[in-house]
Design goal:
The complex is a heterodimer. Chain A has one domain. Chain A has five helices and no strands. Helix content of chain A is 78%, strand content 0%. Chain B has three helices and ten strands; from the N terminus they run H-E-E-E-E-E-H-E-E-E-E-E-H. Chain B has one domain: OB fold (Dihydrolipoamide Acetyltransferase, E2P) (Beta Barrel), CATH 2.40.50. Classes of the chains: A mainly alpha, B alpha+beta.
Amino acid sequence: MFQNLKKSLVFRRGKNLKNIVNYLISNCLSFTCVILMFSVLETVGITLFEINSHLVLDVFFLTTAVAALMFFTDQLSIKNHLFETLIRIFDVFFVVILLGGMPDTGNFLLMSLILMLTYFFVYTIMSLKYKATANAINKRIIAMKKEEGNHE
Amino acid sequence: MKLIVEQSLESKEVEIIIKCGLIDEHLEKLIDQIRRYSFSINGKKDGINYKIPLESIFYFEASEDKTFIYGEKAVYECDLKLYELEQQLAGTNFVRISKSCILNIMHLNSVRPLFHGKFEAQLKNQEKVIINRHYVPKFKEKFGL
């Protein structure tokens, strides 16, 4: 198992800066999602943290740090989807616990729920974006085929 | 610009003659493209060498220090390394889609998204190859996106 793991953890060369756009989008989405969840929780009387300008900046710093760590761990070319998902979830928890500190058990469960919901929210939106990209490429492929057919 | 295509059964080989006053940047690109597209790659199968035309190649794949040429049905071994092929095929319909694969987009059937920004490309012969997320921007560029 570890040999396979070692084989899959091959560092990639030639990073493409255009990929950074996806990390920026993920960052904006996760920031929005976390702030919205804190606001909804506060509205229903559950106050994890008092929402003020410091908290907003802290959340932005955390989501940016998560996106940055994901950028680096994504350089590992991991072929297993489940393992890749676990690494990404680990990135989220690692940054939040490292920078935000370890909360008590009750808050940890609530925090975990918020983080997981945020993760899957971002994942869903990004999947829709990739689906739109695939549709756009497929349209071009059909157009190319038609052009090819006309030439023949 | 005038484009004249003369079709005749007497012609045994395709011949392209470009008549021009001055070769500008666009014409240079066109000449380069024609030159590359009429280019063939040496492939070896069962000890026999073949000249494989670029347009019939579906993709190149590197595996265990060897490079393979994948056609519609046949697989050949190639002497060139993937990075050498990538350099030689710059500006053609070939694009690097992963650390180990260069794909000819002219043989694509469709693409679909996979997990975490990866895509799966289905080829005209129903084979499937993975487009790694790091190569997706270059791949999109090939389609003008």
